[in-house]
From TrEMBL, chain A:
Cytoplasm as UniProt keyword: yes
Gene Ontology cellular component terms for the protein in this record: cytoplasm
GO molecular function annotations of the record: GTP binding
Protein name: Septin
Location(s), subcellular: Cytoplasm
Residues of the Septin-type G domain: 48-321
Sites marked Important for dimerization: 170
Single biological process term from Gene Ontology: cell division
Keywords attached to this entry: Cell cycle, Cell division, Cytoplasm, GTP-binding, Nucleotide-binding
Gene source species: Electrophorus electricus
Xref: InterPro entries: G_SEPTIN_dom (IPR030379), P-loop_NTPase (IPR027417), Septin (IPR016491)
TrEMBL record, chain B:
Transmembrane annotation, as ranges: none
One of the GO biological process terms: cell division
Record's protein name: Septin-type G domain-containing protein
PANTHER family: SEPTIN
Cell compartment(s), UniProt: Cytoplasm
Organism per entry: Electrophorus electricus (Electric eel)
Ranges of residues in domain Septin-type G: 26-298
Pfam families, alphabetized: Septin (PF00735)
Length: 378, 325
């Protein structure tokens, strides 16, 4: 009731705070005034607006488009045509983008939805996630170039901040393709696993499936997005709610493009002969929880983790590769470096030189060992 | 000459009674295969169809709900009895079908199995001393489970049904259909029928095997409504003071045998109450005969000689007919 609304508002506040503690200054005689900083940030952000890139992945027919429409109250897919069976046999995995500007209470959000039609739909789905991982890497690479470039004023951030992965409710848990997909992506993007079309599950079946999926995610070492811990000074109610949200994952969702009449109100729902499923009824599905976590409380954190963890991983990996390739190139006397490198400072240059010498030494050792083994065999 | 009225009562119709009694004494066999990805409710549906725990899931003590790495076929047989009529029901399960990342040729073991049963029967038929009743392990019906995506047939569905529609009677069903609204269901079925026609797939009841006008009218009605959208369960709930088979959710109870909710009853009527014998007849007189003719044309021409290997799907054996039969 009222408490829930207050707690929701608290969650909205978190949207505006970076990961970590908010500055709390007691008002005292030595009041300097920088406690207004959050408000200043707020005002600037409202002026500038936010952007967010969300990827949706999963087989065809799991309600992805419907869920996206429900989450953001849009109709992004009204011109979509379904391929017929013959066309689908020759279909490959594509990446498509839809951008929509949403404004609410003066706050602007530029939302980009990255879709992956064709994923998992073929008879042979070997490596069907490769176009998707390539796409994510390409966005990182582009950002890396831009960041290293000279004009950084208007860098376009197309990096994928979050990937909603749809698991079919029909199975008994994760299928091989689910495991392989998530493992290919979990170190590149924040994955939030969802149980799709949850209206074909009884409450008992939902619980069993969630338990099974959570268990398998752990067993296979899949690193899905972890909601950050509450600050220890949050009140008990907030902590409890946070705990409940976390224990509810993976969220079992239902989406709807239509409005129906239920219990005297007009709601987003699905009308069946045996009853009406209400998308926003928390006893029917976890749609509201997903929406709150994704949009109202953790959108900012998802971006932070993308920048601080996934992108940094990519960048470090990239630099390492370039370093070793450069070392190779130097030996081969070739000239052109791969990317316009930022001029490394003295420290970095020293490190690179050290690594290079280490590599050379290891190479020589290997050659010696190989020779010894060869001599032994003779 | 013909059409003369008979004086007095001959008693021909009593033969019907004799046939009935014999059938009841002998009982009959029915072999049903279920094909579809893991988790589509195949075992539950079969149990619900025959109102007994006949699926492998219910009968195997060590049954594990795990995705197997290869497609292998497992069958379980039961004798079930109703009003003095005994039926030996065999349910053939196909775990592993469509569950892998690469499902290419996952239908091959199934094709092989079906042809092997035809081969078994053929071998018996050709024996010099034949059994009075040849044991019939041929697959009379293959129920193919489509996930309720609401879109169209998937490539794997087309590939499977294209190949198997030629050698067995396929009955496609939409599984776990309680996730489709009525409108979505109608659209989905229509698109599936379009896809079936466009791909040249023939499912049961095939138009070309309608025997007469009466058959055609009856079967046309079925053909306009397939694939049936089904929901299965073995749990009962109280609805309006009655015990019904259903699935209880937070927004209502889905009654499996209520035709306003799903088409389970239609499927049951088709498979069990009205077309069971027809399924067997089509298998024996059409699919089996096709196999037999192909086989005899390809093997050695002598009466007792037959190559040892059963036919692979579509691939001719290397034995050429040496003389004209």
């Amino acid at each position: 009731g009222m408490d829930a609304i207050m707690l929701q508002e608290k969650l909205v506040e978190r949207l505006l705070c970076a990961r970590g503690r908010t500055m709390r200054q007691k008002v005292d005689k030595q009041y300097v005034g920088f406690a207004t900083l959050p408000n200043q940030v707020h005002r600037k952000s409202v002026k500038k607006g936010f952007d967010f890139t969300l990827m949706v992945a999963g087989e065809s027919g799991l309600g992805k488009s419907t869920l996206v429409n429900s989450l953001f109250l849009t109709d992004l897919y009204k011109d979509r045509k379904l391929l017929n069976a013959e066309e689908r046999i020759s279909q490959t995995v594509e990446i498509t983008k839809h951008t929509v500007d949403i404004e609410e209470k003066g706050v602007k959000l530029k939302l980009t939805i990255v879709d992956t039609p064709g994923f998992g739909d073929a008879v042979n789905n070997n490596e069907c996630w490769k176009p998707i991982t390539d796409y994510i890497d390409q966005q990182f690479e582009q950002y890396f170039r831009d960041e290293s470039g000279l004009n950084r004023k208007n860098i376009l951030d197309n990096r994928v901040h979050c990937c909603l992965y749809f698991i079919p409710p029909f199975g008994h848990g994760l299928r091989p393709v689910d495991v392989e997909f998530m493992k290919a992506l979990h170190e590149r993007v924040n994955i939030i696993a969802l149980i799709a079309k949850a209206d074909c599950l009884t409450p008992n079946e939902t619980k069993k499936l969630k338990d099974r999926v959570r268990d398998e995610i752990e067993r296979f070492g899949i690193k899905v997005y972890q909601f950050p811990e509450c600050d220890s000074d949050e009140d008990e109610e907030f902590k409890q709610m946070d705990k409940e949200l976390k224990e509810c994952t993976p969220f079992a969702v239902i989406g709807s493009n239509t409005v129906v009449e239920a219990r005297g109100q007009r709601v987003r729902g699905r009308l069946y002969p045996w009853g009406i499923v209400e998308v926003e009824n928390q006893s029917h599905c976890d749609f509201v929880k997903l929406r709150n976590m994704l949009i109202r409380s953790h959108m900012h954190d998802l971006k932070d983790v993308t920048c601080d963890v996934h992108y940094e991983n990519y960048r470090a990996h990239c630099i390492q590769q370039m370093t070793s390739k450069l070392a190779q190139d130097n030996r081969m006397d070739s000239s052109i470096p791969i990317l316009p490198l930022p001029t490394p400072d003295a420290e970095t240059e020293r490190l690179i030189k050290m690594k290079d010498e280490e590599l050379k030494r290891m190479q020589e050792m290997l050659e010696k060992m190989q020779q010894q083994m060869h001599e032994k065999d003779q | 000459m013909g059409g003369r009225d008979l004086f007095g009562y001959v008693g021909i119709e009593a033969v019907l009674d004799q046939m009935r009694r014999k059938t009841m004494k002998a009982g009959f066999e029915f072999n049903i295969m279920v094909v579809g990805q893991s988790g589509l409710g195949k075992s539950t549906l079969v149990n619900t169809l025959f109102k007994s725990k006949v699926s492998r899931k219910s009968c195997t003590p060590s049954y594990e709900e795990k995705i197997s790495r290869t497609v292998h076929l497992k069958s379980v047989s039961h004798i079930i009895e109703e009003k003095g009529v005994k039926m030996r029901l065999t349910v053939i399960d196909t775990p592993g079908f469509g569950d892998q990342i690469n499902n290419e040729n996952c239908w091959d073991p199934i094709v092989k199995y079906i042809n092997e049963q035809y081969e078994k029967y053929l071998t018996e038929e050709l024996h010099i001393t034949r059994k009075r009743r040849i044991p019939d392990t041929r697959v009379h019906c293959c129920v193919y489970f489509l996930p309720a995506t609401g879109h169209r047939l998937r490539p794997i569905d087309v590939e499977f049904m294209k190949r198997l529609g030629k050698i067995v009677s396929i009955v496609p069903v939409i599984a776990k259909a309680d996730t489709l609204t009525m409108d979505e269901r109608l659209d989905f079925k229509q698109r599936i029928r379009q896809d079936l026609q466009a791909s040249g797939i023939r499912v049961y009841p095939q138009k070309e095997y309608d025997e007469d006008v009466e058959d055609r009218i009856r079967n046309d009605k079925i053909r306009e409504n397939i694939p049936f959208a089904v929901v299965g369960t073995d749990k009962e709930h109280q609805v309006n003071g009655n015990k019904v088979l259903g699935r209880k959710t937070k927004w209502g109870i889905i009654e499996v045998e209520n035709v306003a909710h799903c088409e389970f009853a239609n499927l049951r009527d088709l498979l069990v109450r009205s077309h069971l014998q027809d399924l067997k007849d089509v298998t024996h007189y059409i699919h089996y005969e096709t196999y037999r003719v192909r086989r005899l044309n390809e093997s050695n021409a002598s009466v007792s000689g037959l190559s040892a290997l059963p036919l692979e799907n579509g691939i001719t054996e290397k034995y050429e007919a040496q003389s004209q039969l």
